[in-house]
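__Record contents__

***
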Amino acid sequence: MLTLYLHIPFCKARCSYCDFYLVTQTEHVSAFFRALFIETALRSADLQGQRISAIHFGGGTPSFVPVRFLAEWLDQVASFSTFASDIEIALEANPEDLTAETMDELRAAGVTRISLGVQSFIPEKLKILGRKHSSLESQQVTASALRRFDSVSLDLICGVPGEDCSMWDADLHAALSLRPQHLSVYMLSVEPKTMLHHKIAKGLLAVPDDAVQAAFYEEALGKMACHGYSHYEVSNFCQPGHHSRYNLASWMREPYLGFGPSAHSFLVTEEREIRMANVSSLSRYIAAPHDAVAFREELSAEERFTEQVFLSLRINIGLDVEFLLKENKLGHLVLKSIDQFRERGWVRQHAGLIYLTEKGFLFADFIAGALIFG
């Protein structure tokens, strides 16, 4: 089974916190898709004979481009491969882009899952984040999407400058009252060179301290559990059977192909694992779709081990002790380091598997780094 990712790099404007690859020159949409169709045709050998279980449209803002382009690309992919009968086709969207007509077009094109970049229902937070929709729009679009798609996911951000516990509690209440099948909760990451980073560096804004952000996260954990959502990855919660199929496959190190500028791919054979990344430049991509790959590396045994440890700890399938024991020195060093985190209540071990506890999820990256690098 194979999953696919398509990076659509267009946005009306860049949000204050965003450091993803995107452009706001939307006059290049048609040229981008012409290049995409060429890239896809040139990579048809990678698709031949493959069964596709999930496709994810990310960006950028996939909901911003005409649906007919997405439908045409799906038809092209289907001509080279076989879609699973229950394929999940997911699309990231901004609430302000989705009318009832647009959603009907997306559903007719094959989209089964919508991921809405709501981020917040609080006007003050939306303004700081540079979002263009209102709380009411988010509520109305979510309700409309729930009537049309198999799964609806909402993104929420906590730790925004000026945010307090009452605001975060209101966000969680608003999101949960809509009963989406999936929720993603992200602690705000202030990335270099973003508008938000510039304002914080100049002292114009200040983010809540680590203790407050931890309290926000723990509040989300408690409320999600009370409402029947499974915590299946550090930032992701779902009702039974509604996890993101593409994301979970990626975290489980299953092969995937990425198309479009800045998209990544992961190819797996019996002997080798290869990671690739496309050029992060729309102009270069349009000019030479036959030369889209800008980076390619074969993973060493140590890199494969490192990825397995890091990703297994992020999801609740657990890190296999037997796998660690097979990895000789590296695996034994990880096992030896586990004890310190078990004593802190950050990890637990059951039936030969090591899991992060709910408290441990707060420190997932730190734990993985300490286990791998000492």
About this structure: The longest strand covers residues 82-93. The chain has two domains: 2-250, 302-373.
